Amino acid sequence: xxxxxxxxxxxxxxxxxxxxxxxxxxxxxxxxxxxxxxxxxxxxxxxxxxxxxxxxxxxxxxxxxxxxxxxxxxxxxxxxxxxxxxxxxxxxxxxxxxxxxxxxxxxxxxxxxxxxxxxxxxxxxxxxxxxxxxxxxxxxxxxxxxxxxxxxxxxxxxxxxxxxxxxxxxxxxxxxxxxxxxxxxxx
Length: 187
Prior knowledge:
There is one protein chain. By secondary structure, the protein is of the alpha+beta class. 16% of the residues lie in helices and 39% in strands. It has three helices and nine strands; from the N terminus they run ββββββαβββαα. It has helices at residues 87-98, 154-157, 166-179; strands at 20-28, 34-42, 47-52, 58-66, 71-75, 78-80, 101-113, 122-133, 145-150. The strands form three sheets. Strands 6-3-8-7 form a four-stranded mixed β-sheet. The model has no long low-confidence stretch (mean pLDDT 91).
């Protein structure tokens, strides 16, 4: 079911936001060259992206409006960590808010940067297994559609026009390789 896109009422530049702030960084490289770079600094406590496995081959995806690209995107549940919240706690909370499940088995299997050249934020990839139904009230403006997908059919997911978010794609491949025994985290 295609949802109607939200209406953009206005746009305006901001110097800072609740989540990010821009800063300039003056550097001198080992060859003496000097440059000033700009980067976005996260003002948060990190983020999580969760790979919720309903069974050994079924991952749960969510369809959510992506303001940055102005369309609905199919990807993994994700969110920011709260102050003093462990990665696993944040992953379980986000999973309950966005998908309606908790997990008895949560494992950090990787950490990803979104764009390390100009952003400082890092996202922890958390594999969630042994799911059980439980819902928490989230901060999403509309209910997210939960879409089950076979991890063994990941190659078909990449053909979907609503799948473009790099963190979700990377996390799904990392999880698939971890579950197949071909990848071991460096922890």
